[in-house]
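Side project, low priority. Logging it here so it doesn't get lost.
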Amino acid sequence: MIREVLRMGDPRLLQKAQPVAQFGTAELAALLADMRDTMAHHNGAGLAAPQIGVDLRVAIFGVRANPRYPRAEEVPDTVLINPVIEPLAADQEEDWEGCLSVPGMRGMVPRFRYLRYAGFDEQGRRFERVVEGFHARVVQHECDHLDGILYPMHIRDLRKFGFNEALFPDQELPLE
């Protein structure tokens, strides 16, 4: 089922989400199905449970051919529950981001380029990955949602934040 995506300004997006305590449940499966349907409907690269009003530390992400990310490297379809992120280097890079909860806008956001993330899948199996680039950016963006952080909170120069049509008139949108 496609769920309503909360928009910036909704106080539920600013709360720290609660850890998932039980895995492999019908409720968790239903939540993940709704998140997948919602993300696909909006051509998203990822979605966090708080974005649809669910106060749990659950994120999904994955990118293949996607009209919102025409030049993006592939990111495997992932269910990430109760995540932990560890930057592997201090260097960051800035790039454009957008968000389903901040529709029609983009901003230049600094993110760690290299990181390790760990968490659990829907059955409670622990996994970890070392990633870089766009994959690392997507993970950080979605995990921020679990801590009540929206990407505009990271923007260093507000001159690099605005509506897509104003920032990129008559241009293909950059990756988000």
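Brief comment: The two ends are 25 Å apart (CA to CA).
Revisit when time allows.
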